[in-house]
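Hi all, posting the design record for the shared folder.

TITLE: backbone redesign
STEP: 1 of 1
STRUCTURE INPUT:
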């Protein structure tokens, strides 16, 4: 694998060679591979692949120009969030990323051009979509999830569905509140 990466980098023009290469451990590779397969669901990549008439090597910057204003950790986390949601619900994710025709992507960018505040709102909607998808797939009342459950679901860590008893807590609290108001 290292030889293939080195050969690939040497084949690039000097100005195209990356300044930095990130290496991951083998245990992280499989989950990341599944996430990066979501790139094929992005229209820019799908169109590029469909129009290809012969094999060619291309480089895409999945971060667009995010690293100019945001830390690399935050950028990587945001990208993983987008890819994870694309796997969960492609159509809804596309609507969140591009809610109307006025939302555009700059030339040579993959993702829409949004302000930092707009990205914060988009990320919140994407997180909600992941939680809703988890609840639907696992037959879980998402209101019963505690903050650590939500964090684990978003990060993709293995989580057990909350017990039936814990799922009833929000309903019991609501009934108690209604009775005390009456």
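Okay, here is what came back for every position:
SEQUENCE:
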């Amino acid at each position: 694998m290292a030889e293939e990466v080195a050969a690939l980098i040497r084949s690039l023009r000097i100005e195209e060679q990356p300044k930095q290469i990130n290496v991951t451990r083998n245990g992280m590779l499989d989950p990341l591979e599944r996430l990066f397969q979501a790139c094929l669901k992005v229209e820019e990549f799908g169109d590029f692949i469909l129009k290809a008439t012969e094999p060619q090597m291309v480089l895409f910057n999945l971060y667009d120009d995010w690293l100019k204003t945001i830390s690399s950790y935050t950028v990587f986390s945001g990208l993983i969030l987008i890819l994870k949601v694309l796997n969960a619900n492609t159509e809804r994710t596309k609507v969140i990323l591009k809610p109307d025709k006025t939302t555009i992507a700059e030339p040579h960018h993959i993702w829409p051009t949004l302000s930092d505040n707009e990205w914060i709102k988009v990320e919140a909607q994407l997180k909600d979509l992941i939680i809703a998808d988890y609840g639907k797939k696992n037959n879980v009342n998402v209101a019963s999830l505690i903050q650590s459950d939500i964090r684990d679901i978003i990060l993709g860590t293995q989580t057990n569905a909350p017990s039936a008893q814990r799922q009833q807590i929000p309903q019991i609290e609501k009934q108690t509140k209604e009775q005390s108001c009456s």
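COMMENT: The helical segments are 2-11, 26-36, 43-51, 72-88, 90-97, 116-138, 147-155, 164-181.
Let me know if anyone wants the other runs.
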